[in-house]
Amino acid sequence: MTASEIVHLTARQLRSLFEEGRLSAEEIVSAYLERIRAYDRHVGAFLLVDEEGALQQARTLDERKARGEPLGPLAAVPVAIKDVLCTQGMRTTCASRILHNFVPPYDATVIRKLREADAVLIGKTNMDEFAMGSSTENSGFQITRNPWDLDRAPGGSSGGSAAAVAACFSPMALGSDTGGSIRQPAALCGVVGLKPTYGRVSRYGLVAFASSLDQVGPFAWDVPDTALLLQVIAGHDPMDSTSVEIEVPDYLATLDQPVGGLRIGVVREWLADGVDEQVAKAVEQAIDVYRALGAKIQDITLPHSKYGIPAYYIVAPAEASSNLARYDGVHYGYRAADYDDMVDMYCRTRAEGFGAEVKRRVMLGTYALSAGYYEAYYLKALKVRRVIREDFDRAFEQVDIVLGPTSPTPAFRLGERIDDPISMYLSDVYTVTANLAGIAGISIPCGFTADGLPVGLQLLAPPFEEERLLRAARMYERETNWHTRRPDLERVVAQFEAKQSASAG
Predict the structure, then answer these.
(1) Alpha-carbon distance 73 to 345, whole Å?
(2) Which among 57, 93, 119, 264 could disulfide-bond with 79, CB atoms 3.0 to 4.6 Å apart, if both were Cys?
(3) Secondary structure, 3-state, 448-497
(4) How far apart are the C-alpha atoms of 311 and 313, rounded to whole Å?
(5) Are 452 and 446 in contact (CB under 8 A)?
(6) Is the dihedral of CA 435, 437, 443, 446 positive or negative?
(7) How far apart are CA 248 and CA 232, in angstroms?
(8) In angstroms, rounded to a whole number, what is the distance separating the alpha carbons of residues 216 and 233?
(9) Which of the residues are catalytic?
(10) For residue 240, what are the contacts with CB-CB under 8 A and spacing of at least 6?
């Protein structure tokens, strides 16, 4: 089997071929490393590729298999890690210059679980700095390009992880979702991305942006691989006080059982003004697929969802203001070289170490929490958050799944929104409410635009109903082939280089 064939397989196929002895772990990992070397200089998905470490992990797995030792469910499967998760002995920067030399002394719980499952950690992916952004243009080190069109953004903040899966640099990846940072890039890159219920997956070792909103989740090419990765990382963790002690179902065992009598609520206000015509058409066609499968489709309303963006951009920056106060040049990370006194050192360190978007959100959050404004902004935003959750509670009394577009548009051009924060923030208009409500959500591919750009379908389920969510997503996926499509990177890169040469000439 050629390297090109290997990297187009699912994680489950790779695991089976390794178990059967038809592929070694070293062959699998080498195929992905070869593809990363060939194309990631154009895509920019990775901040760090651990070639030596990944190959050593692979050789160890081959030796253990030869000895007949039992191996984990992700044995020989490469997994890319968003650079917001602590990895012991491996640099973790959050794509920020303030952490450019930070090497954690411990693993995040999800990383420990991946190691226990015998996954191969292939590298750390690019992201918007401290997960603040929707395009991965706010990284302190590089931009990431969309593998379907290198002139376009992959979404964010987990754009590096989504691009890594879309470009076949890794069959699986981990991201984090604070306001849509898994689902939106999954939609723009044409892969599956799932945000678990808040508390389903441990946040221990996840560098915090907004602690009441952040959640770690999986990317993959299809729903079964997504279920497999979620199975590995989910579960209670005594190291995380927000982790809920609730049983984790066997997601793969029931995945191909259609949800009988599935009731789907379509949020009509999400398909009205502001949504791209081709996105709306793809979503409507997806609704027709569900209808043909026997699902009961009914229109629902989430009347307070229109307040999601303003509420989110008070709650999240307020929490970020508090969480990022620790980066002061004293404890770890970057420290300014020249300063007059301690206060000057704090100011210069943060001014030099943080990027523009992080500074913007820290200032917004600090203002919202300041004396005289707390009640007017932060407290009011928390009340709005409550009524948004109540909207979902009422909706789930009538339906099993809530459906709508993941993003109002397909992938936008790089640079198109970077100087217009409001336009950028509206990229998450359909995703932030799930984080405010703490419910589960998934984005699955549901079509392509005339320009060949992916469109994502978002499904939402009640808290801790990931099993229902995955089964509903799989019902659609089994009837369509959108998830089987891969970008032709050789052609995409050739077109991009030709365009660059033409503009340079």
Answers:
(1) 48
(2) 119
(3) ECCCCCEEEEEEEECCCCHHHHHHHHHHHHHHCCHHHCCCCHHHHHHHHH
(4) 6
(5) no
(6) negative
(7) 10
(8) 9
(9) 82, 157, 181
(10) 109, 202, 203, 204
- The confidence score (pLDDT) of residue 340 equals 94
CB 121 within 8 A of CB 79: yes
Question: How many domains would you assign to the chain?
Answer: 1
Instruction: For residue 107, give Cα distances in angstroms to 92, 115, 171, 323, 470.
Output: 11, 10, 22, 19, 28
Q: State mean pLDDT over 215-222.
A: 98
Give the domain range for residue 129.
3-306+385-504
Residue 157 located in a structural domain: yes
Tell whether 122 is covered by a domain: yes
Q: Which of 206, 51, 217, 26 is nearest to 123 (CA)?
A: 51
Q: How confident is the model at residue 500 (pLDDT cuts 50, 70, 90)?
A: confident
Q: Residues 402, 408, 409, 413: what is their CA dihedral angle, to the nearest 10 degrees?
A: -120
DSSP 8-state class, residue 196: P
CATH code for position 412: 3.90.1300.10
* 0.85 exceeded by pTM: yes
User: Residue 302's closest CA among 229, 371, 389?
Assistant: 389
Buried b (16+ CB within 10 A) or exposed e, 380-403: bbeebbeebbebbeebbeebbbbb
Question: Cα–chain-centroid distance for residue 490?
Answer: 25
Tell me the DSSP string of 264-324. Answer: EEEEGGGGSTTS-HHHHHHHHHHHHHHHHTTPEEEEE--TTGGGHHHHHHHHHHHHHHHHG
Neighbour tally for 77: CB within 10 Å = 33
- List strands edge to edge, sheet with 172-176: 46-49, 120-125, 78-82, 172-176, 216-220, 192-195, 440-448, 454-461, 401-405, 263-267, 296-300
Which has the closest alpha carbon to 83: 53, 44, 55, 113? 44
The answer as to whether 332 is a domain residue is no
Kindly report the three-state secondary structure assignment for every residue of 377-411. HHHHHHHHHHHHHHHHHHHHHHCCEEEEECCCCCC
- Say how far apart CA 476 and CA 290 lie, in whole Å: 7
- Specify if 99 maps to a domain: yes
The pair of three-digit structure tokens given for residue 419, joined into one six-digit string: 């100087």
Give, in degrees to the nearest 5, the angle at Cα 206 between 200 and 211: 70
Tell me the pLDDT tens digit for each residue of 265-301.
999 999 988 899 999 999 999 999 999 999 999 999 9
Count of alpha carbons within 13 angstroms of residue 163, beta-carbon side: 36
Taking alpha carbons only, the member of 167, 209, 210, 212 closest to residue 191 is 167
